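Working notes for the structural subgroup meeting. M.R. asked for a predicted model of this chain before we commit to crystallization trials. I am recording the input and output together here so anyone reviewing the notebook later can reproduce the run.

Input as submitted:
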Amino acid sequence: MRALSAIGFVISIIGLLLVCYNQFAVIPFLTDLMSSSEIRVNEFTFTLTQKYEAQLFFMSTLSIIIGVFSVLFCSLVYLRKRTRMTLIGTILGVFVAVMGIIHSWY
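Returned structure, recorded in token form:
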């Protein structure tokens, strides 16, 4: 049980790092590319915008999957053994899944 809760906690931390990268690196750059109309005329920036949109979609889908697995691992262990690590892992997993859903709508 300890190994399963540790795996779920580590998965939720990895998902949190992925969501933070998505929020603070990919989305601001994509917003800057899409905000100016004179930048979109260039073919290179149009291709770059498409690349970052695909990356945003992939990372948001991956964070949803990671969040769901983290919630499953940690909540199953939390039902039997009520430890802080499993509770924090469950809460972080829900947060990662919700942020992944929000980022996929961008």
